[in-house]
Amino acid sequence: MAHIIDGKKISTEIKDELKAKVELLKDQNITVTLAVIQVGNNPASTVYVGNKKKACAYVGINSLSYELPEETSEDELLSLINELNQKDDINGILVQLPLPKHIDEDKVIRTISPSKDVDGFHPQSVGALSIGQEGFISCTPAGIIELLNRSGITIEGKECVIVGRSNIVGKPMAMLMLRENATVTICHSRTKNLMEVTKRADILIVAIGKTKLINKDYIKDGAVIIDVGMNRDENNKLCGDVDYDDVFQKASAITPVPGGVGPMTIAMLMKNCVDSIK
Ligand code: GUN
Q1: Does the active-site annotation cover 96?
Q2: What Cα–Cα distance (Å) separates residue 14 from each residue in 8, 28, 238, 271?
């Protein structure tokens, strides 16, 4: 039977540690400020942005909201980012994705100063991670490392299989697991014999966006299962990329959906904001 990795509890521990750090900074008259930009009113984005602002309030970080209309031009958005890049009293800049179709996301990400890139999406941040240099690390993969470490799960020397190769999760996750001395394999939608590969995993991280793709036939006995998926099942209930009930007896540890990886993403965003003070 699997140990349930409680992301909600671990994320609260991290936010409480950060809260104490922010209080110490305040004693030195240092405040942490995050600029949060949302373009348009994608309902999911509004929920995510609201949760990020709530987390800022909890930790003691100032959040400045820039809610721009859907019709905002790319130039207008880039000018705002350039303005925020110049301001010494803004420590982090977050542009909620996805952006409306007429705006080039890559260009927007490249415009954020790497020193304020608390999402860790800038090519310089991604490159720094790949070659072991300092920089902001994408929040979801960083959160997964914290979940494993704080659950007493050893990473070094383990076979780690990652299902999914997105720029935000799969690729940076592979780089981080490599940095932690795991042996890493990345699978994706074109992988042949996916089941053969995932069955080798001591630690299986799934971020492919397919409802309950991974069942007990895909895992080995005692595997640690990290589910990054966030989908709705046939009853409109939130579920992951892993069939939780099916793998539960066979896995040694598992993250639930919701309450596993999700809360960690925001906790690590808060950590990046506090680290931006250095
Ligand atoms: N959209 C979905 N996830 C994220 C995230 O982690 N950061 C930003 N900026 N946008 C997102």
Answers
A1: yes
A2: 10, 22, 25, 8
Report how far residue 39's alpha carbon sits from residue 135's, in angstroms, rounded to the nearest whole number. Answer: 26
Decide: 31 and 59 in contact? Cβ < 8 Å. Answer: no
- For ligand 1, the distance from its centroid to the CA atom of residue 249, given in whole angstroms, is 33
For the chain, how many residues are written?
278
Q: Which CATH architecture does the domain made up of 30-114 adopt? A: 3-Layer(aba) Sandwich (3.40)
pLDDT at 154 (0 to 100): 98
Is the pLDDT at 278 greater than 90? The verdict is no
**98-135 burial by CB neighbour count: b if 16+ within 10 A, else e?**
ebbeebeeeebbbbbbbbbbbbbbbebbbebbeeeeeb
Written as six digits, the tokens of 135 are 């920089």
Mutate to test the pocket of ligand 1, among 97, 136, 272 (most ligand atoms within 8 A of CB): 97
Q: Which of these CATH numbers, 3.40.190.80, 3.40.50.720, 3.40.1160.10, 3.30.1050.10, describes 139-261?
A: 3.40.50.720
Q: Where in the chain is the domain with CATH 3.40.50.10860?
A: 30-114
Torsional class of 236: left (φ above 0), alpha (ψ -120 to 50), beta (otherwise): left
Give how far the C-alpha of residue 190 lies from the chain's centroid of Cα atoms, to the nearest Å: 24
Centroid of ligand 1 to alpha carbon of 138 (angstroms): 10
Q: Is 202 part of the annotated catalytic residue set?
A: no
pTM for this model (two decimals): 0.96
Q: List pocket residues of ligand 1, CB cut-off 6 Å.
A: 94-97, 119, 139, 265
Is residue 140 pLDDT above 90, yes or no? yes
